[in-house]
Automatic annotation (TrEMBL):
<keyword id="KW-0433">Leucine-rich repeat</keyword>
<dbReference type="InterPro" id="IPR032675">
    <property type="entry name" value="LRR_dom_sf"/>
</dbReference>
<dbReference type="InterPro" id="IPR046959">
    <property type="entry name" value="PRK1-6/SRF4-like"/>
</dbReference>
<dbReference type="Pfam" id="PF00560">
    <property type="entry name" value="LRR_1"/>
</dbReference>
<dbReference type="GO" id="GO:0016020">
    <property type="term" value="C:membrane"/>
</dbReference>
<keyword id="KW-0732">Signal</keyword>
<dbReference type="InterPro" id="IPR001611">
    <property type="entry name" value="Leu-rich_rpt"/>
</dbReference>
<protein>
    <submittedName>
        <fullName>LRR receptor-like serine/threonine-protein kinase FLS2</fullName>
    </submittedName>
</protein>
<keyword id="KW-0677">Repeat</keyword>
<keyword id="KW-0472">Membrane</keyword>
<keyword id="KW-0325">Glycoprotein</keyword>
Length: 256
């Protein structure tokens, strides 16, 4: 069994756990060995017994790595002050709970490199999480349609959904003012590349073939886009990467 690491950071440092009443009010005990059931409630993992904890004030950033098992239970919605939720490289499974809608201050969501599956809940849309800047769900087994109002809305700069089992078309209805990187490779997406992407004037990466840290030499591209590459996309001033080798796309790159 691997030894996991969990860090919980905050805006304010209480100078140690001790018997601080503020921490008690926030629901965090002084001895994490005695609070294991609380973290088991959130992560559903017996591996929490092997976690090394770091706590400083009110929880605004939660970083967990190295767990052999677990899930993300609805109790994660109780951590309503979180700005960063990073669960990279664990072996978590199951679905994302709808209670993520309670994380209204969340700016960074990193769930890559796990075994999450099922549909991404609609509660992960901009309608609920209006502070999101980065969403990375790559390297899991998510399926179904991509959630509306997650690509091109608000201040979202990075969306990485690569290496999953998403299907259907690319939903894009937002103003796309902030989006810089959109990674969708190794899914089962179909249809045309939406011309609305031409509104994403800051976009640097579209689709992308990055292997997400995999070392097996696999470079498959499963999407099956059709039609022409929209002229508006080809003229994006910041675009550096456009990768869709097996798509049935047409269109010419602009001269110069």
């Amino acid at each position: 069994m691997r030894t996991g690491i969990c860090e919980i950071w905050a805006e304010r440092d209480f100078g140690g756990v001790g018997d601080d009443s503020s921490l008690k009010q926030e629901g965090f005990g002084q001895d994490f060995s005695e609070r294991g059931r609380d973290w088991l409630r959130i992560f559903g993992s017996k591996s929490v017994e092997n976690l090394s904890w770091s706590l400083s004030g009110r929880a605004t950033s939660l970083n967990v790595t190295g767990l052999d098992d677990g899930l993300l239970s609805p109790s994660v919605g109780d951590l309503s002050e979180l700005r960063v939720l990073s669960l990279v490289g664990n072996m978590f499974s199951g679905e994302i709970p709808a209670t993520v809608r309670n994380l209204r201050f969340l700016e960074v969501l990193e769930l890559q490199g796990n075994n999450f599956s099922g549909r991404v809940p609609t509660q992960m849309s901009f309608a609920f999480l209006q502070s999101l800047k980065l969403v990375n769900l790559s390297g899991n087994a998510f399926s179904g349609s991509i959630v509306n109002e997650i690509i091109g809305y608000g201040s979202v700069k990075v969306v990485d959904l690569s290496n999953n089992q998403f299907s259907g078309v690319i939903p894009l209805n937002g103003t796309c003012d902030s989006l810089k990187h959109l990674k969708l490779s190794r899914n089962f997406l179909t249809g045309e590349i939406p011309s609305q992407i031409g509104k994403c004037r800051t976009l640097r990466t579209l689709l992308d073939r990055d292997d997400g840290g995999l070392n097996d030499g696999f470079r498959g591209e499963f999407n099956a886009f059709v039609g022409n590459i929209p002229h508006q996309v080809l003229l994006l001033p910041s675009l550096r990467v456009l990768w869709a080798p097996r798509a049935n796309l047409g269109g010419r790159l602009p001269s110069g």
